[in-house]
Amino acid sequence: MRASLIQIAVEPDEPVETRRARVARLVREEGGAADLVVLPELWPVGAFAYESFAAEAEPLKGPTYEAMAAAARDAEVWLHAGSIVEAASGALYNTSLLFSPDGELAASYRKIHRFGFDKGEAVLMAAGEDLVTVDLPQLTVGVATCYDLRFPELFRGLVDAGAQAFVIPAGWPARRRAHWTLLAQARAVENQAYVLACGTAGTHADVEQAGHSIVVDPWGEVLAEAGPDEEILRVVLDPAKVTATREQFPALKDRVLKDRVL
What we know:
Blueprint: E1 2-7, H1 16-29, E2 36-38, H2 53-56, H3 63-75, E3 78-88, E4 91-99, E5 105-110, H4 121-124, E6 132-135, E7 140-143, H5 152-160, E8 165-169, H6 177-191, E9 194-198, E10 203-204, E11 207-208, E12 214-216, E13 222-225, E14 231-236, H7 239-248
Parallel strand pairs: 1-2, 2-3, 7-8, 8-9
Antiparallel strand pairs: 1-14, 3-4, 4-5, 6-7, 9-12, 10-11, 12-13
């Protein structure tokens, strides 16, 4: 399976409509080169642009949905379109969209762990509740978003649901980049699964972004890593490597606390 991670630069002087059209063009350009394309978290508005969340919120099937559905269909790729600020039932959610190659919505995921402690996303957005996996032709992928990466129990749940790879869009700050790389590798090693973690570049809301999107294989080897600027990572994933790793080093079978309430 061929995958492309598009590390978008989110700059404050680029209008949302312009960025949306630019990203759609980038997705279309991956047609023929990728089976799966991944975008970052909240790239239309910026993960730290809290003051813009309400103004830029959109329904699930709003302008970003329409643009990304068309781009996936034109490129004939599976597209994890990153996430949007979704407005639904009087609340805001950090919602990821995943489209099939025919442009249909294959899944949506509302971010469960909201960042900010007592401010920002943590107070402005409601939490999702459901774990989400999607069966691609060669891999079952589990979906998580940014701050979720710090919570290993979420990924254990995705593994129990059949996940062989994790797709993680993010808007991770540069000052904690070391954690980003460390946690991506840890989630891959402990779950013996691919990790495709796609971040943003640039600076928005005065927060410098880490960039450094990364793809890690089930043994913890880094297959590709971006720099700090806008960039596209292209990798080839071998679904058989997940099975082989789990068979050759069957640590997942030795889980003792799986069903125990602590």
